[in-house]
Amino acid sequence: QVQLVESGGGLVQTGGSMRLSCVASRTIFNNVRMDWHRQAPGKQRELVARITSAGSTEYFYSEKGRFTISRDIAKNTVYLQMNSLKPWDTAVYSCEGLGVWGQGTQVTVSS
């Protein structure tokens, strides 16, 4: 079974940027869609961004334009570039594909 491992989280100030990575244990991204989700403290998990097997992207959060999902098939990696971060972006960010979830990476945006 494929495994997903996220990295790149941490602490950043409001207005800063961060790039999250999701590495798969084997090649899958050219065959499946991959999603980035986030779960803020006390809130339900929400879908943030999606990249399809064909490489098309979709965004599901209210302030579209700040986040960009991309992938590097050769590196088995999906990225989430986050710019102009706000305190309400603080959450655990997780990637998902084929019903498999990574362990998540914490993003904290200080005001």
Structural topology:
Elements: E1 4-7, E2 10-13, E3 18-24, E4 34-39, E5 46-51, E6 57-59, E7 67-72, E8 77-82, E9 91-97, E10 100-101, E11 105-110
Parallel strand pairs: 2-11
Antiparallel strand pairs: 1-3, 3-8, 4-5, 4-9, 5-6, 7-8, 9-10, 9-11
Provide the β-strand percentage band: over 45%
Mean pLDDT: 94
**What is the makeup of the main sheet?**
7 strands, mixed
Q: How many beta-strand segments?
A: 11
Radius of gyration: 13 Å
Low-confidence stretches: none
Task: Output the structural class.
Answer: mainly beta
Cα distance spanning the termini: 40 Å
The number of helical elements comes to 0
User: What percent of residues adopt helix (DSSP H or I)?
Assistant: under 10%
Summarize the helix and strand pattern as letters: EEEEEEEEEEE
**Shape designation:** globular
Structural write-up:
The chain is mainly β and 111 residues long. It is built from no helices and eleven strands. The protein has strands at 4-7, 10-13, 18-24, 34-39, 46-51, 57-59, 67-72, 77-82, 91-97, 100-101, 105-110. The strands form two sheets. Strands 2, 4, 5, 6, 9, 10 and 11 form a seven-stranded mixed sheet that branches. The chain has a four-stranded antiparallel sheet with strand order 1-3-8-7, with no helix packed on it. Strand 4 (34-39) and strand 5 (46-51) form a beta hairpin. It is globular and about 40 Å long. The chain starts with a strand and ends with a strand.
Offer a concise description of the structure.
The chain is 0% helix and 51% strand.
List keywords for this structure.
single chain, 111 residues, mainly beta, 7-stranded mixed sheet, 11 strands
